[in-house]
Amino acid sequence: MASSSCRSTSGTYGSGNITGDRFCDCGLRAPLQVSNSVANLGRKYYACPTRQCGWFRWASPNVKPSDSGDDRSSQPNFDFKSSERVERINAEVVYLKFLMCVQLLVSLFCVVLIIVMLCKL
Length: 121
Fold this sequence. Notes:
Blueprint: H1 4-7, E1 22-23, E2 29-30, E3 32-34, E4 44-47, E5 56-58, H2 65-68, H3 80-120
Antiparallel strand pairs: 1-2, 3-4, 4-5
């Protein structure tokens, strides 16, 4: 029977049992997962499988997205298609903001034109 100190990784990244498994505070084996978030895309982590206890640990604590910048070599499972999709969406957002500004300018021009025409009456 394993002691709780062998099963828990609550305090450090390196602790765990002899097989390298990680266990959450519920005592369940926490599976290795891969992040799909934009901020941590492709980064591996362990988390409580039921999400009841909220236990979470990065698989590699030395790699922080803020430290690595755009160095994709530090993220071995980086999905370039997802990155390209995010970049395309960002470009579309910029374009839509530009169109919104153009629409605002045209609307203001129309309002000024109407005011000028009303003043001439």
